[in-house]
# Entry
Amino acid sequence: MKLHDLKPNPGAKKDRKRVGRGISAGQGKTAGRGTKGQGARSGGGTRLYHQGGNLPFFRRLPFVRGKGFTPLNRVEYNEVNLDQLMDKFASQSEVNPETLKQARLLRDPRNPVVILGRGEVTQALNVRVHRISEGARAKIEAAGGRVELIE
# Structure
């Protein structure tokens, strides 16, 4: 096979529809625009998002989604509670985003990690995360563990 032998699959290439070129072309006379009305006129048609007298979709949205808005630069954290750590980690083990990912405790590993204070700490853990609640920090340090924040 040579370059000049290559050709597209049958049916892959179609000629464009030439409208308004007489009745034998199949798209003559009104050329697919119907008869009369706004869409049949030259320069006619409606603007983008027009809904024919209904309240347009983008103006309905504030009512649909309720009060307020979603801040664009909000940081979403992976929330991990102390009782989850007690189930997965042994005493004196290192708790960081990598080990939490291996323990399958993170919803989205790309997001930062926050430790929350639900549950009791029965063993000393070395915790290295992006954020930690005051209650969780107190419980970990009372059990003999260390807490270090990642910048």
Remarks:
- The longest helix spans residues 134-142.
